[in-house]
Amino acid sequence: MNKTKKNKLYLASSSPRRQKILSSLGIDFDVFKTNIDESRREGECPSEMVIRLASKKAQAYKHGHFVLGADTIVVFEGQIFGKPKNAENAIEMLLSLSEHEHVVMTGVALRTPKGTKSLLSETIVRFRKIHKEEALSYWQSGEPVDKAGSYGIQGLGGMFVKSITGSFSGVVGLPVFETVSLLTSAGFDLLDK
């Protein structure tokens, strides 16, 4: 297989969490922020939506040959929970998730000179009971502002999590298994330093 160690990877995300995960894999990359419409299409199922958005992000940067895009959503009882609009919306999401299971879906897409490939990570997360005062205090911490479902599992929001089944890194925003699968299939050798 043709190794692409000399080729540059671009991450189509300004998320510090995605950057940290990618850095932990020892990958050299540059970051650019995308500005795409993240609205759900009529009749579009959640898994199709995250794959479409991840692919759009990967295709948004025209200068790089290898561009990685990702999108994360929380799905609860058929509803998609994205990033909160305000405190009231965040608290409403957290109280809805309280004592229930939800699914975190992260789509990952890699655009290469040969086209775009994508994979989906789905993780089941179960929350403990959350009290309204806790949800408000958590909002005031600032942590949930830019996170799907209004929580960060890797930070304070982890205190609400009773259990997960699936990918922890997928809940954070960039599933390692799927990301590495896409990169190695494109010729990146992560172990060749």
Report what the structure shows.
By secondary structure, the protein is an alpha/beta fold. It has a single domain (9-185), classed as Alpha-Beta Complex (Maf protein), CATH 3.90.950.10. The protein has six helices and seven strands, in the order βαβαββαββαβαα. Strands 1, 2, 3, 4, 5, 6 and 7 form a seven-stranded mixed sheet that branches. Strand 1, helix 1 (16-24) and strand 2 form a beta-alpha-beta unit. Helix 3 crosses helix 4. It is globular and about 50 Å long. The protein starts with 8 loop residues before the first strand and ends in an 8-residue tail after the last helix. 36% of the residues are buried.
Number of helical stretches of at least 4 residues? 6
SSE sequence, one letter per element: EHEHEEHEEHEHH
Secondary-structure arrangement, i.e. CATH architecture: Alpha-Beta Complex
Named CATH topology: Maf protein
The separation of the N and C termini measures: 16 Å
The overall average pLDDT, rounded, is: 93
Find the structural class using helix and strand composition.
alpha/beta
Rg from C-alpha positions?
A: 17 Å
Query: Based on DSSP secondary structure assignment, what is the total number of beta strands?
Result: 7
Instruction: Supply the CATH class.
Output: Alpha Beta
In percent terms, what proportion of residues is strand? 25-35%
Low-confidence stretches: 1-5
Number of domains: 1
Helix content: 25-40%
Shape: globular
Q: Biggest β-sheet: count, sense, barrel?
A: 7 strands, mixed
